[in-house]
Automatic annotation (TrEMBL), chain A:
Keywords associated with the record: FAD, Flavoprotein, Oxidoreductase
Molecular function terms, GO-annotated: FAD binding; oxidoreductase activity
Record domain FAD-binding PCMH-type: where: 1-169
Superkingdom field: Bacteria
Protein name: CO or xanthine dehydrogenase, FAD-binding subunit
UniProtKB/TrEMBL annotation, chain B:
Pathway: Alkaloid degradation; nicotine degradation
Keyword annotations from UniProtKB, A to Z: 2Fe-2S, Iron, Iron-sulfur, Metal-binding, Oxidoreductase
Keyword Iron: yes
InterPro entries for the chain: 2Fe-2S-bd (IPR002888), 2Fe-2S-bd_dom_sf (IPR036884), 2Fe-2S_ferredoxin-like_sf (IPR036010), 2Fe-2S_ferredoxin-type (IPR001041), 2Fe2S_fd_BS (IPR006058), Aldehyde_Oxdr_Iron-Sulfur (IPR052914), Beta-grasp_dom_sf (IPR012675)
Keyword Metal-binding in annotation: yes
Pfam families recorded: Fer2, Fer2_2
A molecular-function term among this protein's GO annotations: metal ion binding
This protein's name: Xanthine dehydrogenase YagT iron-sulfur-binding subunit
Gene3D superfamilies on file: 3.10.20.30, [2Fe-2S]-binding domain
Domain 2Fe-2S ferredoxin-type: 3-79
């Protein structure tokens, strides 16, 4: 197995272009599991740990630009106000040791439908930045996931960053698992409200071949939500939202849970997310008044 | 493919030629004879291989040795000074924070890394609102040590030991 260890981003892009079958590795928390168990024997690894800008984060034309290799720990510690749903998801990732290494870029590269970062990226309408020697392009997270572990990334491209819009309303993430730590989600859900555009974003994890949106549920809640006063929605509205989220999922039965349970869990998480959103929205109104 | 690297382990430099597939854990145990990090699960679930890499706790099984070229690695062997145990190690002895001891070196390294994270004000991942100043009560200790499993079930005394070590370090 070749080991490519570029020290600049330009070298990394050239290496990926010359070795499109090289597997990029950053924190290693996903790739190493497959290597240690012999599930995957890539012809080459492309080590990105020496490329400093992958660990950078900062404002970028109205977005928060998050380098693909920023560890979850940093997102929790420094970016919780700028990316609330993603920071909540970051807190739910694996264990402290893994959060010190793992990154959103790795989650996107692996593209497991159970990855914790995906639902928030869908809900907030984040962009994924892909780079190659041919140039740089940005793909909406909502267009990024094509199939189980298949994405819009081309073989010669590396994931350089994600771009998160400025939060414009309440955001949340929740996840079902057997314990708090070291759990692959049975199902997960993220909700983000945009008070300016008066739109709702959702993301469903671990309940389909890819991370999914619940588009009908988004439209329904956007039309029912009291954007001016944040009056509590009726129980029927909240229940209906939960049903629409559950019906958008395409889960299977597996070792972590049954399809039926996943749908049920999603409807419960969706209902709770609405009540949290109403509470947060009211606080925001009171603060601005 | 092989690579020449330099690992700095517990204050000593080791020039090493490693197969690029070698994990840091295997390099420590099988090449350098540093056997306190244990191979429990080999995929980051158990935390028995926890070491400090440039001061941060990580799973040794999930890092390639080549990626650690030039980095500073501290294992349980390297925590103490001049024949004295590190306060966290002493606390595990004083409070009987183990039974068989297999997970202990990882627990101890994890606790040392964790106490530094708390001192640096890192918020917890416990299911409570993120506080600006983390309070290290027992629930917090359990949450922050959740990446380390103990199959003997010595958790009660591990929590006591970590709490005691925190008192000493204050």
């Amino acid at each position: 197995m070749d080991f490519l260890s570029p020290s600049t981003w330009e070298e990394a892009l050239a290496a990926k272009s010359a070795h499109p079958d090289a597997v990029p590795i950053m924190g290693g928390t996903d790739v190493m599991v497959e290597l240690n168990f012999g599930r995957r024997r890539p012809p080459a690894l492309l080590d990105l740990t020496r490329i400093p800008q992958l660990r950078d984060h900062g404002p970028d034309d109205g977005y928060l630009r998050l380098g693909a290799g920023v560890p979850y720990t940093t997102i929790i510690e420094r970016l919780r106000d700028r990316s609330p749903a993603l920071a909540q998801a970051a807190r739910a990732v694996a264990s402290p040791q893994i959060r010190n290494r793992g990154s959103v870029g790795g989650n996107l590269g692996g593209a497991s439908p159970a990855g914790d970062a995906h639902p928030p990226l869908l809900a907030v309408d984040a962009l994924v930045e892909l780079a190659s020697v041919r140039g740089v392009r940005r793909v909406a997270a909502r267009e990024f996931y094509h199939g189980p572990r298949r994405t819009a990334r081309r073989d010669d491209e590396l994931i350089s960053a994600v771009l998160l819009p400025e939060p414009a309303g309440p955001q949340s993430f929740s996840k079902i698992g057997t314990r708090n730590a070291m759990v692959i989600a049975v199902a997960s859900f993220s909700l983000a409200l945009d008070a300016q555009a008066r739109t709702v974003g959702t993301g469903i994890g671990s309940a389909g071949p890819t991370p999914l949106r619940a588009i009908e549920a988004e439209k329904f809640l956007a039309s029912e939500f009291d954007w001016d006063g944040a009056a509590s929605p009726s129980p029927a509205t909240v229940t209906r939202f939960g049903e629409l989220v559950a019906s958008a999922a395409r889960p299977i039965d597996d070792v972590r849970g049954s399809a039926h349970y996943r749908r049920h869990a999603l409807s419960v998480m969706a209902r709770r997310a609405v009540s949290w959103a109403v509470t947060d929205y009211r606080k925001e109104i009171a603060r601005c008044a | 493919m092989e690579s020449d690297i330099i690992l700095r382990v517990n204050g000593r430099e080791w020039p090493l030629r490693v197969d690029t597939r070698t994990t840091l854990l295997d390099a420590l145990r099988e090449r350098l004879g540093v056997t306190s990090p244990k191979k429990g699960c080999d995929h980051g679930q158990c935390g028995a291989c926890t070491v400090l890499l440039d001061g941060r706790r990580i799973n040794g099984c999930l890092v390639l040795a080549v990626a650690c070229d030039g980095s500073e690695v501290v294992t349980a062997e390297g925590l103490g000074t001049d024949g004295e145990l590190h306060p966290v190690q002493q606390a595990f002895v004083d409070h009987d924070g183990f039974q068989c001891g297999y997970c202990t070196p990882g627990q101890v390294c994890s606790a040392v890394g964790m106490l530094e994270e708390v001192a640096a004000g890192w918020p917890s991942a416990a299911g409570r609102p993120v506080a600006d100043t983390p309070v290290l009560d027992d629930a917090e200790i359990r949450e922050r040590m959740s990446g380390n499993l103990c199959r003997c079930g010595a958790y009660a005394n591990i929590v006591t030991a970590v709490r005691a070590a925190k008192e000493v370090s204050r």
